Amino acid sequence: MSYSKEIVASVFSEFDKKRKQSESVRQMHLYEVYERIPELKEIDYEMSSTGLQILGASLQGKDGLEERIAKIKERNKELQDKRAALLTADGYPVDYTDLKHQCEKCQDQGYINGKICSCLKNALITKQLEASGVGQLISGQSFENFSLDMYAENVREQMSYLLDDLKEYAKSFDKESSNLLFVGGTGLGKTHLSTALAKAIIEKGYYVVYETATNIFSDFENDRFRDRYAGEEPVSTKYMECDLLIIDDLGTEVVTNFTVSCLYNLINTRLNKRLPIILSTNLNSEEIRKLYNDRITSRLFGDFAIKFFKGEDIRKAKRVKR
């Protein structure tokens, strides 16, 4: 799996809190029942010495060892039964003072025999979805609820091929997957399918960042004036290092020498690292050429697979249907 250090640290911190909270609840329950049933404390004290008793029995030699251990186990069973009887007699469930975990499979450790537990995987995915920039979009935008019915018949077949193509891209994604350039007017499904791609690839365990061009360049701008000696990592680092970067609404930013320089550096750095990018824009190819310099356009049209979104604004079509 490939998650940012911040996400991994955050999730493991949460798991640590869960374990501490479970232990805190257990200690409160023990304190409560010891106050009400003092005999339980004596029983627990005796039971806690079981391991030492077995060790002592072993040190006495092999002769009669099995018998000595059997007696210790028998006594331990008597204590357990007595403990359970005292608890239930006072109205408590038998497991009231047991240490309870949110995930009993791994006991909130995150791993089972060295393999990642489903609870840790789900926590990492959830945290990555929140951090990626698509957390709020995902509930309403996925491959499953992308409808081709809103497209006119003359483009529906083409959009169906595109949908299948993007599903396959998500299915076979790795860190060296191809770069994609989504080109098409407003309301043709670019954001919906970008979100669907992000969700599917995050669920495979990859570190995905989804952000608008405007916000990305704003982060680069802010990093220019940060205190370089503050010890904090620049916010823009994630755009250079994530497994997949999805840039939405390219061309809506205020284009300046600085933003053009940032865009070229971002694209060039990721291409050199063989880290894929998905760019989405409402601009047509001619508008892209006019807005950006030759170095950028040559990269976009030479190193990206262009996916054309055609048709009429499906958001308007949805409003009309309602």
Quick check: average pLDDT? 88
Share of residues in helices = 55-70%
* Shape verdict: elongated
Spatial gap, N to C terminus? 43 Å
Largest sheet: 5 strands, parallel
Strand content: 5-15%
Query: Strands of the biggest beta sheet: in what spatial order?
Result: 4-5-6-3-7
Spans of 5+ residues with little confidence (pLDDT < 50)?
A: none
What is the number of helical segments per DSSP (H or I, 4+ residues)? 13
Radius of gyration: 30 Å
Computed structural class: alpha/beta
Strand elements, count: 7
Order of helices and strands: HHHHEEHHEHEHHEHEHHEH
Summarize the entry for a quick read.
The chain is of the alpha/beta class and 322 residues long.
SSE blueprint:
Elements: H1 5-36, H2 38-47, H3 50-59, H4 65-89, E1 111-112, E2 115-116, H5 118-132, H6 153-171, E3 179-183, H7 190-202, E4 208-212, H8 213-224, H9 237-241, E5 244-250, H10 257-273, E6 277-281, H11 285-291, H12 294-303, E7 304-308, H13 314-321
Parallel strand pairs: 3-6, 3-7, 4-5, 5-6
Antiparallel strand pairs: 1-2
Helix pairs in contact: 1-2, 1-5, 2-4, 3-4, 6-7, 10-12
Outline the structure in words.
With 322 residues, the chain is an alpha/beta fold. It contains 13 helices and seven strands. A five-stranded parallel sheet has the order 4-5-6-3-7, sandwiched between helices. The chain has a two-stranded antiparallel sheet with strand order 1-2. The chain is elongated, with a radius of gyration of 30 Å. The mean pLDDT is 88.
